[in-house]
Design a protein that fits this description.
Length: 209
């Protein structure tokens, strides 16, 4: 794709994110610290400020005839501003294409979560607490609503919310990152590998451009 094509795609993504209420934040290019101790570098990109919500996914379902995940009908998982869960890798990709975006790569997701540091959490070295992340809820928990006013202390180095805890997030390679509401310690270096068709109350996603 040409440079003009890439910027056109980014502009379309921004326009659609405004329309569907998914603000995006810029992530500058720079160093990478990946799970397993690997390093690298990456260019700049845009990433959703928070995971895709039930309300945003419902707009996609209404426009395309896709299925609404079963969990959105369950009490405790049905609020419009909660992250959508129970979405497979392919369904997450289809939503992203419809929104003029794509799923982030592992490298992009980790850059957004760490910037130029090798901290175990998006906020730094401090062990998680409720002011930082939604985690440790056990088997009877549920995702927390996505609100930029909550858990500010846990925002990532570029301002992204809930990169640790709340929901595992699909990446384009199919690896899940970030932990979820039931995790006891949602460290950045603890990815999860699941089959692409896996549907879970703890798995959501966010998009990139």
């Amino acid at each position: 794709m040409t440079a003009m094509g890439r910027w056109t795609t980014r502009l379309l993504g921004l326009l659609r994110s405004e329309r569907y209420g998914s603000p995006m934040l810029a992530v500058s290019g720079g160093r990478l610290f990946l799970p397993g101790g690997r390093r690298g570098r990456i260019g700049a990109f845009l990433l959703d400020a928070r995971p895709v919500t039930n309300a945003e996914y419902r707009a996609f379902v209404g426009a395309t005839g896709a299925r609404m995940p079963d969990w959105t009908w369950r009490s405790g998982f049905d609020h419009a501003d909660q992250p959508v869960v129970g979405v497979s890798l392919d369904e997450a990709r289809r939503y992203a294409r419809w929104a003029g975006k794509r799923l982030p790569t592992v490298r992009e997701w980790m850059r957004a979560a760490r910037a130029d540091r090798r901290a175990p959490y998006p906020w730094g070295d401090a062990f998680p607490q409720p002011a930082f992340a939604h985690y440790g809820r056990g088997s009877r928990g549920a995702p927390s609503q996505s609100d930029e006013r909550t858990r500010r202390a846990g925002h990532g180095p570029f301002g992204h919310q809930d990169l640790a805890g709340n929901v595992w997030e699909w990446t384009d390679e199919g690896l899940l990152l970030g932990g979820f509401w039931g995790s006891e310690d949602p460290r950045l270096d603890s990815p999860l590998a699941e089959p692409p068709a896996r549907l879970s109350a703890g798995i959501g996603f966010r998009c990139a451009v």
